[in-house]
Amino acid sequence: MLSYVKGPDAPLLEITVDEGFRRTVAAHPDRPAVVVRHQNARLSWRELDAEVERVTRGLAGLGIETGDRAGVWSTNNLEWLLLQLAAARLGLVLVNVNPAYRSYELRYVLEKSGMKALFLREQDARADYRRILEEARAGVSLPLRHVVYFEHSSWREMLAKGAGYAAPSIDRHDVVNIQYTSGTTGSPKGVLLTHRNLINNAHLVAQRLRITPQDKVSMPVPLYHCFGCVMSSLVCFLTGAALILPAATFDPLATLQAVAEERATALYGVPTMFIAQLQHPDFGNFDLTSLRTGIMAGAPCPIEVMRRVISDMHCREMAIAYGQTESSPVITFSRIEDDLELRVGTVGCALPMTEVKIVSQTGETVPAGESGELCTRGYLVMKGYDGDPDATAQAIDGERWLHTGDLAVMYENGYFGIRGRSKEMIIRGGENIYPREIEEFLYKHPAISDVAVFSLPDEKLGEIVCAWVRLRPGMTATGEQIREYCRGRIAHFKVPRYVRLVDAFPMTVTGKLQKFRMREREIEERRLEKAAGIKTA
Ligand code: AMP
To answer: Which of 198, 226, 406 best tests ligand 1's pocket when mutated (most atoms within 8 Å of CB)?
Structure first.
């Protein structure tokens, strides 16, 4: 038996995001739609629709037109959701910008996407976004024409000056969203996703989880990521389930409170978020019995954690999802009726209308049980990388197979296991980090001659970032100064936890860096054997 499956046949939805949303509004106008706890906002579907219409008119009033790009650079809030829906209604392309991005990354995204408007908060406890934006814009000419701050008069003015708009003609194959993934080539890549991609992925996920208008989904993951804006918000917009945002950024206590007080039926998160809730000292004080289901995804889910989520958090129909931004995102998903062993031990089986195969390095489909690179094909494959035909051609082959870069195995029963990554990616908490991107950033430092970035094991985050640095002759800098240089310029999760200054790197005879040897030395000197799962005498 070869490692190839096609998920069951099912009718796909041939509608746009706005058509899907309008159906829900018409079917359940008075049911709860959105609860944003940190903003004290509670809207029914009818109320949400009215707000979306106000924002759509506001966007039209700014002169932003169908096909234009508009960015949102913010932690979770009501405005993010309104922009997601209003942009879709007006036929814009929403550009999701990671709120952890700092000036270097932001400038890249502003230039590359060509967005005409950017929506953001002025500042929060983490950052002064206005200052970072000013730094990113300094000395470059950008197509950005409107900067709108949520808590500021610019947002209110935009709404007050709203204008009528002609119903745009939107094709479901049009791009509706750009989501950035860190690239192996050093810069983030904009993944172009269409209405058809996202609507159907959300639809099939909702079906697998049996989401209904009676469900209430508590969602602490960031909206800029596909887990937030497809598997969570779009699933609710399509099904009529209520979406609960517990806080602006993940907070274990706020999440537990949201579940208990709102009587949530579903809880989503990356594994580290569930671990943080299970370990919280107040965990036992919350009544979580309303929970039925949930999704854990984004990184390997430890079996023990999955077991405790099912038993101690009452998520008896908990599922695991596997996928990536380029595949809208979900490729494989548990069936909630699967027994525990299958749900905790695999990443599930192919969603309907989804082909999956495992190939060897030479591109042949391998026998079941053998590991290789996981590839997928179908409605879910992205349109491509924004403005990057070479990278697109590397990711999607001539037969439209998307090569994920993940090492996986297909078992005889058609379920999949993820074995590792064929790329060097680091997963810190739920955040994916490409060492190459940080290396290229550090090469810009005037004192740095050579750098190698790699992962170290960490008991809390799974993996953390470590950098070895060789300075230019005659230059001085400390590890702490290099870390300081990173802060404010790149996202906090990419800033190396440890920077070691070295005179030379371990190399192979052919001059390839041996990162595994650097890692071994760090593990030994920092006594990380426990986190690395290495037994010591
Ligand atoms: P992203 O594009 O940010 O969604 O990241 C996708 C990557 O995260 C995949 O290519 C995998 O390497 C990893 N990933 C996602 N889901 C899982 C999972 N359930 N188990 C293991 N790794 C996962």
So the answer is: 406
Q: Is the pLDDT of residue 235 over 60?
A: yes
Task: Kindly state the average pLDDT of the residues 163-180.
Answer: 96
Residue owning the nearest CA to atom 20 of ligand 1? 300
Q: Is 184 strand, coil or helix?
A: coil
pLDDT given at position 345: 86
Q: Which residue from 123, 113, 125, 39 is spatially nearest to 82, judged by alpha carbons?
A: 39
Residue 72 pLDDT greater than 60, yes or no: yes
Please tell me the residue having the least CA distance from ligand 1 atom 23: 299
Residue 481: which H helix or E strand, with range? helix 479-486
Instruction: Using a pLDDT cut of 70, give the percent of the chain over it.
Output: 96
pLDDT at position 133 over 90: yes
List the 498-501 sheet strands across, edge first: 448-458, 462-471, 498-501
Could you tell me the pLDDT band of residue 535, with boundaries at 50, 70 and 90? Answer: low
> 3-state SS of 482-527?
HHHHHECCECHHHCCCEEEECCCCCECCCCCECHHHHHHHHHHHCC
Instruction: Give 299's contacts (C-beta < 8 A, 6+ positions apart).
Output: 270, 271, 272, 427, 429, 430, 462
- Helix, strand and coil percent figures for the chain, each rounded to 5: 35, 25, 40
407: three-class secondary structure by DSSP: strand
Return the DSSP state at 171.
Answer: -
* Residue in this structure with the two tokens 């978020």, named with its chain if needed: 273
Q: What is the pTM of this model?
A: 0.87
Strand 293-297 and strand 317-323: the pairing is: parallel
Question: What is the spatial distance between Cα 244 and Cα 220, in angstroms, rounded to a whole number?
Answer: 9
Closest CA to 439 of 385, 377, 505: 505
Tokens at 473, concatenated: 């002759």
Write a three-state SS string for 94-151: EEEECCCCCHHHHHHHHHHHCCCEEEECCECCCCEHHHHHHHHHCCCCCCCCEEEECC
Which of 96, 184, 193, 322 for mutating ligand 1's site (highest number of atoms within 8 Å of CB)?
A: 322
Ordered structural domains, the chain, with CATH = 17-25+43-166 (3.40.50.980), 426-532 (3.30.300.30)
Mean pLDDT of the chain: 93
Report the nearest-CA residue for atom 22 of ligand 1: 299
| Identity of the residue numbered 1 | M
In a 13 Å sphere around the CA of 140, the CA atoms on its Cβ side amount to 18
Tokens of residue 168, six digits? 């745009």
